[in-house]
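Technical annex, item 7. During the second reporting period the consortium partners agreed on a shared format for inverse folding records so that results from different sites could be compared directly. Each record opens with the tokenized structure and is followed by the designed sequence. A conforming record, contributed by the partner at site C, is shown below for reference.
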């Protein structure tokens, strides 16, 4: 960088002169920077739009092009308090009868309240020793637990605590706890059903231990306690079903018994989920309309004539609100008359207007009561949107007969076949429009993302090169003026010296 000297000797405003000389070249640089900024905004706008287009394709078309998306069924029960039903894809349509005879039950064992030596309610904790509860020595013995085909032995003596017994019961695969408030031992299986049965038997001191734990009344003559679980029992269409849990998977239905009510006949009605199909089509059209309307709005945006991205100097001369308003004007028009928007929009509208072959007959959306509004009814940015006759949420068509809903109910196969074909055609068209093009776009992009990035990088290189030339040009002029100032200073110095010699 050249040494920069002010016009102290010449009296000239060299800084202003040089900046005026450089201004034209800086303007060219600013023009390139504005063009790059505009390209960046265009990239951002397209990234956002591309995400919405891809979302539409993946959220709806990816599923709706397969008939499985429409085969959802729903099941209603006459007593929802007694049973719940989840409908699978393989469930058979029709009415079935159900009776819940018995719910599945875990094997339970609840002891009597532990009493002290005087026969009063005890005040023991899990850390209390069984000898303390018994009021005397227990001696030694054992308690054998059989659960899940496994035997577990508890060795007991005077130092065995309630907690020791609980831990061994848990080791045996059981739930066990001591309720200090009620002074009761609670034991249960972890699973339900007849396979959850467990037994407890004792010998010698083990018998006294069980008595201390409040289990004396549960023992038989052989000092054995047996806890029995129960299977759930239901009757479906006159056939008996038993299961260790309350859930049954039968013919595509998951039936969960909630309450036993022997003798009550419950009806289970399975049918096509017509509301689900209708909502899917409605949501599909809603998303399509939003997308096509947005593209129409972007393509037909008002021109921002006279508006360009601002330089830093231009921003400094404006308020933040003014800058925001200015830039919004440019950004709102950034995709005006964009060729890619035109291509995508035309492609989608073309498929939507084309017919779909259904059983050898060409059908269109209007055959299902779905059509666009007339030219004079629709606003400019909604002229390609579709409306469903009879849609309660549509102010334009809500008073018309709902042909779509009627056809779903009476002829679901035709509806499914049409929208499967339409979705497939749309999906394939969108896939084709977003295929990779060498040097121009990546796969899955509906715009020339690669070309834009390349152009952006070119701007960066060009701007860097131009700025280097401007700086060199500016330095050249600073050098020239610096030499002039140096020469003038030398002349002044020489003049002063001569004057001094002449005695001036």
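Designed sequence (site C submission):
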């Amino acid at each position: 960088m050249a040494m920069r000297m002010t016009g102290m000797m010449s009296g000239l405003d060299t800084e202003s002169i040089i900046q005026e000389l450089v201004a034209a070249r800086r303007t060219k640089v600013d023009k390139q920077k504005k063009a790059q900024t505009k390209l960046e905004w265009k990239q951002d706008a397209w990234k956002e739009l591309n995400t919405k287009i891809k979302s539409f394709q993946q959220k709806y078309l990816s599923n709706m092009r397969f008939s499985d998306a429409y085969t959802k069924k729903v099941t209603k029960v006459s007593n929802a308090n007694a049973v719940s039903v989840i409908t699978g894809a393989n469930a058979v349509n029709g009415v079935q009868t159900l009776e819940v005879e018995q719910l599945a039950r875990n094997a339970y064992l609840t002891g009597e309240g532990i009493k002290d030596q005087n026969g009063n309610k005890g005040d023991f904790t899990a850390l209390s020793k069984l000898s303390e509860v018994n009021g005397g020595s227990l001696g030694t013995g054992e308690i054998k637990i059989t659960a899940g085909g496994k035997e577990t032995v508890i060795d007991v003596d005077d130092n065995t605590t309630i907690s020791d017994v609980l831990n061994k019961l848990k080791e045996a695969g059981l739930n066990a706890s001591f309720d200090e408030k009620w002074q009761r031992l609670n034991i249960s299986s972890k699973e339900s059903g007849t396979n959850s049965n467990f037994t407890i038997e004792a010998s010698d001191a083990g018998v006294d231990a069980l008595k201390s734990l409040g289990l004396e009344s549960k023992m038989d003559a052989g000092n054995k306690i047996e806890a029995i679980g129960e299977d759930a029992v239901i009757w479906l269409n006159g056939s008996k079903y038993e299961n260790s849990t309350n859930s049954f998977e039968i013919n595509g239905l998951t039936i969960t018994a909630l309450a036993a009510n022997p003798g009550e006949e419950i009806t289970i009605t399975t049918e096509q989920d017509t509301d689900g199909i209708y909502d899917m089509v409605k949501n599909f059209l809603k998303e399509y309309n939003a997308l096509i309307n947005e593209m129409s709005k972007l393509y037909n945006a008002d021109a921002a004539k006279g508006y360009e991205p601002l330089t830093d100097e231009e921003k400094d001369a404006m308020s933040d609100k003014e800058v925001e308003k200015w830039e919004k004007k440019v950004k709102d028009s950034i995709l005006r008359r964009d060729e890619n928007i035109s291509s995508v929009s035309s492609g989608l509208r073309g498929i939507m207007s084309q017919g779909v072959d259904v059983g050898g007959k060409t059908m269109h959306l209007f055959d299902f009561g779905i059509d666009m509004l007339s030219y004079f009814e629709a606003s400019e940015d909604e002229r390609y949107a579709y409306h469903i006759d009879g849609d309660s949420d549509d102010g334009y068509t809500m008073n018309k007969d709902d042909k779509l809903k009627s056809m779903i109910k009476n002829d679901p196969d035709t509806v499914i076949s049409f929208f499967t074909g339409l979705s497939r055609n749309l999906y394939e068209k969108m896939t084709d429009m977003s295929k990779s093009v060498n040097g121009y776009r990546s796969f899955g992009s509906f715009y020339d993302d690669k070309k834009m990035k390349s152009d952006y990088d070119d701007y960066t290189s060009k701007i860097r090169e131009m700025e280097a030339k401007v700086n060199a040009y500016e330095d050249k002029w600073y050098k020239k003026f610096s030499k002039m100032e140096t020469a003038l200073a030398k002349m002044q110095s020489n003049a002063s010296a001569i004057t001094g010699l002449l005695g001036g």
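The mean pLDDT is 90. The two ends are 41 Å apart (CA to CA). All partners now use this format for quarterly exchanges.
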